[in-house]
Amino acid sequence: MHLHPRPLGSCAGASNYAALGVEQRAALQARLQLLMRTNTYDPATRAIHLDPVRAEAFENLARHFADVFSNGRGEYAIPRGAMSDPVKLRRMTRFFGGRPGPLRRTGRGRTSRTRRIGRTNR
User: Fold this and answer.
1) How far is CA 66 from its chain centroid?
2) Residue 103: which of 91, 119, 115 has the closest Cα?
3) pTM of this structure
4) Of 47, 53, 8, 39, nearest to 102 (Cα)?
5) pLDDT at position 78
6) Please, are residues 98 and 55 in contact by the beta-carbon 8 Å criterion?
7) What sections of 1-122 are H helices per DSSP?
8) Any long-range contacts for 95-103 (C-beta under 8 Å, 24+ apart)?
9) Which of 36, 45, 61, 34 is nearest to 117 (CA)?
10) How many Å separate Cα 106 from the centre of its chain?
11) 102 with 36: CB under 8 angstroms?
12) What pLDDT sits at residue 98?
C-alpha cells in the first residue's frame, strides 16, 4: 500500500512519478533516502521530530486506516465496524506507520536501526 499526501511527481513539476526524467527521479529518491535514514531523535527532549512531509504521510495513513476499519473494505476482507475506536485506530497507525526507517550499514558489516526511545504503551 503506497499512500502519498500528494502526487510524488508534483514536487518536480510532473503529473506522476513515471513522467519524471531520470535525473528528477534520482533527486526524489535521494530526498526520500535522506528523509528515511536521518536520525531525528533529540535526546534533550526525548522526542523524534518528523519532517512535515512524513508527518503529513502519517496523517494520511491514519485517515486511510480509519476509513478501512470503520467502513469496511471488501478487497481486504475487513467488515464494516471492524474497529471504530479512535484511540485504537491511532495505535494501529503508530504500529504500522510509525516504524523506524530502513536499516543502514554501520561500516562494520553490521546493520543498525534507530531505536524508539521514551515510547509508552498508551
Assistant:
1) 16
2) 115
3) 0.59
4) 39
5) 94
6) no
7) 22-37, 52-71, 86-97
8) 96/61, 96/65, 97/57, 97/58, 97/61, 97/62, 98/58, 101/36, 101/37, 102/36, 102/37
9) 45
10) 23
11) yes
12) 62
Taking residues 38-61, what's their average pLDDT? 86
C-alpha cell at 100: 523506524
Here the cell at position 113 is 536501526
Closest CA to 114 of 105, 95, 101: 101
Q: In whole angstroms, how far apart are CA 21 and each of 6, 31, 114?
A: 19, 15, 33
| The residue type at 10 | S
- pLDDT tens track for 90-118: 888 888 876 545 544 445 544 444 444 44
As a whole number, mean pLDDT of residues 73-91 equals 92
Residue 93 sits at φ, ψ, to 5 deg, of -65, -40
85 vs 44: CA distance, rounded Å: 33
| Amino acid present at 98 | G
